[in-house]
Specification:
The protein is mainly alpha-helical. It starts with 6 loop residues before the first helix and ends with a helix. Helices cover about 55% and strands about 0% of the residues. The protein is built from 5 helices and no strands. It is elongated. Helix 1 packs parallel to helix 3 and helix 2 packs antiparallel against helix 3.
């Protein structure tokens, strides 16, 4: 037995959908992959809202839950990609490149071997994000 949604539940579900749409279309501008991520999110929102307009009002809650799940998955994937690339040159780590100046992660640092190798080639006055992270990022090494 299905219940006919009341105006109050329809308004609540619509408000939740709109809040989730605003959340989906809000990203920090300083992200390296901002354009690609916002484009994917906008496409997802467009399809979802179009389908929500054609469905019965009682299904708005499902659309909200689906959009939230998709946003969570997208954020998780973006975080995983961010953790698996060099913080200096932004190149993804390549675990198969085992050369001393390769693109694999250097030990447990967030930098690739090539950037660490280049950092060690610097002179006595050399200062960079690798050798002095507190100066550039406010964190400890």
């Amino acid at each position: 037995m299905t219940k006919t949604p009341t105006p109050s539940t329809e308004a609540r579900d619509l408000r939740a959908l709109l809040e989730t749409v605003v959340q989906a279309l809000t990203l920090p501008y300083d992200l390296d992959d901002y354009d690609a991520r916002i484009l994917r999110r906008a496409g997802l929102v467009r399809v979802l809202v179009r389908e929500a307009l054609h469905e019965e009002p009682g299904n708005l809650g499902w659309n909200v839950d689906y959009l939230r799940a998709q946003l969570t998955a997208e954020v998780t994937e973006a975080d995983r990609r961010e953790r698996n690339r060099c913080r200096k040159c932004l190149t993804p780590f390549d675990p198969t490149d085992t050369s001393f100046d390769g693109r694999a992660r250097h030990n447990e640092t967030p930098f690739c071997r090539a950037c660490v190798d280049n950092c060690h080639d610097g002179g006595t006055e050399h200062v960079c994000v690798i050798c002095d992270p507190a100066r550039y990022e406010g964190g400890a090494r």
